[in-house]
Amino acid sequence: QLRFVESGGGLVAPGGSLRLSCLVSGISLADWSIGWFRQAPGKEREGVSCIRNSDGVTVYADSVKGRFTISRDMAKNTVYLQMSSLNSEDTALYYCATVSIATMQNGERQFWPRDSTSRGQGTQVTVSS
């Protein structure tokens, strides 16, 4: 059974850092690309970052480039999201899911959830002083 368990969220001051973890069970990271998404109250869901199963290629939203880093531990079947230089705009519920990735004609990569109903409960990140 596919399951995602996110952890690592919390309250952090502006400029601070957090590392989120997504423990995946039921599938192998070698077979499925995994992405992080976030949703804040009153805002649309945003794809934050993803990592491709076949070669570890990573994709980032423009809003987090240079501040967030996605990685994975195949042995632990866990995907991480290291977040730094956090600001109030990063406040949201973060969750992980399997994703599809496509490369556009301009070379830009986009990703989206493969199944909108298959996701974890998420972990809350609040950036506030």
Distance between the termini: 40 Å
Main sheet record: 7 strands, mixed
Overall geometry comes to globular
User: Structural class of the helices, strands and pairings?
Assistant: mainly beta
Q: Would you kindly provide a written description of the structure presented here, covering whatever features stand out?
A:
The chain is mostly beta strands and 129 residues long. It is built from no helices and eleven strands. Strands 2, 4, 5, 6, 9, 10 and 11 form a seven-stranded mixed β-sheet that branches. Strands 1-3-8-7 form a four-stranded antiparallel β-sheet, with no helix packed on it. Strand 5 and strand 6 (58-60) form a beta hairpin. It starts with a strand and ends with a strand. The model has no long low-confidence stretch (mean pLDDT 96).
Task: Describe the secondary-structure layout.
Layout: E1 3-7, E2 10-12, E3 18-25, E4 34-39, E5 46-51, E6 58-60, E7 68-73, E8 78-83, E9 92-103, E10 109-113, E11 123-127
Parallel strand pairs: 2-11
Antiparallel strand pairs: 1-3, 3-8, 4-5, 4-9, 5-6, 7-8, 9-10, 9-11
Quick overview of this protein structure:
Helices cover 0% and strands 50% of the residues. The protein has no helices and eleven strands.
